Amino acid sequence: MSNSGEVQLSGGTSSNGAAAESSLFPTYARYPISLVKGEGSWLWDDKGNKYLDFMCGIAVTNLGHAPVKVKEKLKAQLDELWHVSNLFHIPGQEKAAALLTANTCADAVFFCNSGAEANEAAIKIARRYHQKVKGTGRYEIITFTQSFHGRTLATLTATGQDKVKDGFLPLPAGFKSVPLHDLPALEANINKDTAAIMIEMVQAEGGVYLVEPEYMKAVDQLCRKHGLLLIIDEVQTGMGRTGKLFAHEHYGIEPDIFTVAKGLGSGFPVGAMLGKGYLREAFTAGSHGSTFGGTPLSMAVVTATIESILEEQVPQRAAEMGQYLTERLNAELGALPFVKGIRGMGLLVGIECAEPVGDIVLAGQRRGLLFVTAGPNVIRLLPNLLVTKSEIDQAVSILAQLIHEHTAAAVNPM
Ligand SMILES: *Cc1c(COP(=O)(O)O)cnc(C)c1O
């Protein structure tokens, strides 16, 4: 690590020290760092400080920053064609979709631009399937407490956290959240209006909570029994992150619909909703669409990303490195009273702590290690999937230092 001492953080204030009024809406509480360059596991800020990236833009840059093969395909496509309307055939879209369907349980793909849009498409196709194909009036989607599905009106309503709904009333009708792992509560909420159940295999934003395999089998069976569609939100867990191409593969189930976005474009904004063949009838021409969904530029990136993931056996690497990371964390931190639990799937790892961890994140930035939280008390680690053992060792050693300092400061406040 080049950051032997404390890093001087950049940004946030003007030269006279007063907070400058930004021309942006203040929707983000931003850290005082401006990152300007990235390569592999490393980022640099505008002051030349180097950071080990264990957040990856929140599970986006799964192949590291500026992966060479993807970059070259993007550059080549820049010389050919950037955008055409979906009124035309787009060969790159067919190719990317064929790669996705060949390697998953899905038969058809709809491309969009973000995770929220992918979930929005999932909600729409579920309703339309029941209403147009099945001829029932079913519309309701059951989701789970602590889930996260996005920030559009429908997806924030689907999200099982009140903080994303604050001030946005009235919310669209047709959503209910039930506690995860409470099967009777789920069953009690299924009625003649229920269209689908939507679930994350790991509640990532909500605190890195893994869905138990037995429970997931039961959820799948309930869907089959009641004729409900099973929608799995793989926006954060997809593209190899958990040690399989998609997290639901760990559970031996085949969802009717699943969504993907974050890791799909290696940092290029793109999302997708994937589904079984019988859903084709629900998304007939004119029923849904997106100007930017599946442009030649984004499809070049998606194809290169998937090819890299398959060729370099990235999911398997993520499984191995995830195991190494949790082993190292358990060895270094497992016995500390401050650490309540270490859990994860592949390289989506949470460290549950006894207290809020916001200041540990900031202290990490000063030491040159970037990571995020998941809820107030959970440290969330999301390194890229090609991370090395040596990089993991460096991150774990910094984390151990940070936690020791944090607990020492709490015992002995200055
Ligand atoms: C990030 C995320 C979303 C929203 O994705 P955006 O691209 O920000 O719209 C939805 N679901 C899950 C599980 C996510 O992690």
Automatic annotation (TrEMBL):
It catalyses: N(2)-acetyl-L-ornithine + 2-oxoglutarate = N-acetyl-L-glutamate 5-semialdehyde + L-glutamate. Binds 1 pyridoxal phosphate per subunit. It is found in: Cytoplasm. The keyword Transferase applies. GO terms for molecular function: identical protein binding; N2-acetyl-L-ornithine:2-oxoglutarate 5-aminotransferase activity; pyridoxal phosphate binding. The keyword Transferase applies. Pathway: Amino-acid biosynthesis; L-arginine biosynthesis; N(2)-acetyl-L-ornithine from L-glutamate: step 4/4. Its cofactor is pyridoxal 5'-phosphate. N(2)-acetyl-L-ornithine binds at R151, S290. The modification N6-(pyridoxal phosphate)lysine is found at K262. Its EC number is 2.6.1.11. Belongs to the class-III pyridoxal-phosphate-dependent aminotransferase family. ArgD subfamily. May also have succinyldiaminopimelate aminotransferase activity, thus carrying out the corresponding step in lysine biosynthesis. Homodimer. This is Acetylornithine aminotransferase. It comes from Paenibacillus uliginis N3/975. The gene is argD.
